[in-house]
Amino acid sequence: MSDLAELLPDAGALRAGLASAGYLAGDALATALLLAVRMGQPILLEGEPGVGKTEAARALASTVDTPLIRLQCYEGLSSAEALYEWNYPRQLLAIRLAESRGETLRDADLFGPDYLLPRPLLAAISHPGPRPAVLLIDEVDRADDEFEAFLLELLADAAVTIPELGTRRAVVPPVVLLTSNRTRDLHDALKRRCLYHWIAYPETDRVAAIIRARVPDAAGWLADRVAVAVHRLRGQPLTKPPGVAEAINWATALHVLGLSTLDEAAIGSTLGAVLKYPEDIETVHRAGLAALPDA
User: Fold this and answer.
1) Do residues 143 and 238 both lie within one domain?
2) Which of 27, 59, 140, 220 shows the greatest Cβ crowding within 10 Å of its Cβ?
3) Do 48 and 78 share a domain, yes or no?
């Protein structure tokens, strides 16, 4: 970690690195990520969808100049699917080759390192360094309780157990980021092993700055107008208020269409880039489109 201490001596250095990767983080988030890197402790990032949790992991990996290994969680995800699988075609080929030679293979011959295909968790544990990989366990709240319990060994010991091969411990433990949209509460045992940071919707000026960084070819006025409009959309009773990702998408759509103003016609024709439910689009139309951007 001494290399990382030199690379990231303080939160300001990390914040600058994230900015170079196109991610504009506040002081609190930069400090939280710095602690995760320097302390070697997992961090749980929570927040509404679209506030930049996943992008924070990508930007952190870019800043540290290390691989990002992502595990997308979903209902029914098993530990085996996240950890490893066996190369069954290669095993079958080995069996047939042995049979043609009149040989008999033992289980140990077939279930060894040569036939192991790492999935994200094992790949992160096995990363040789010199810098730790960034392991993103994305939307952990979508996984089942059983998988959450399985993660405890990984988070506590930077180790995983493969029944056929025993326990694998990380030579260079990964920097682990978990994200959650809070579709369900996570267990206290998991939270105890993690640092924590809530990513809120950024202020309007920060959203505008993010849009300018991510859509650099767009006209200067566009970022400010879209940021204001998105802020006002969040004040309406929507099923899914727009996040930063939707703001970037909306600005991109307006730029692609070559629109020179953000009026009712422009908003009405592009609402599908920022709102994803027909009920929300109807709500905004009822409230009136003219009040969204600044005049």
Assistant:
1) no
2) 59
3) yes
Is residue 86's pLDDT more than 90?
Answer: no
- The domain of 76 spans 2-83+113-198
Distance of CA 276 to the CA centre of its chain: 20
What DSSP designation does 142 have? Answer: G
For 142, residues 6+ apart whose C-beta sits below 8 A from its C-beta are 73, 74, 75, 77, 183
DSSP state letters, 188-248 = HHHHHTSEEEE-PPPPHHHHHHHHHHHSTTS-HHHHHHHHHHHHHHHTS--SS---HHHHH
Same structural domain for residues 257 and 119? no
Q: Read off the pLDDT of residues 151-162 as tens digits, 9 standing for 90 and up.
A: 987 888 888 877
In the chain, the number of structural domains is 2
Last residue of a domain, one of 164, 198, 232: 198
Residue closest to 132 by CA, chosen among 177, 168, 166: 177
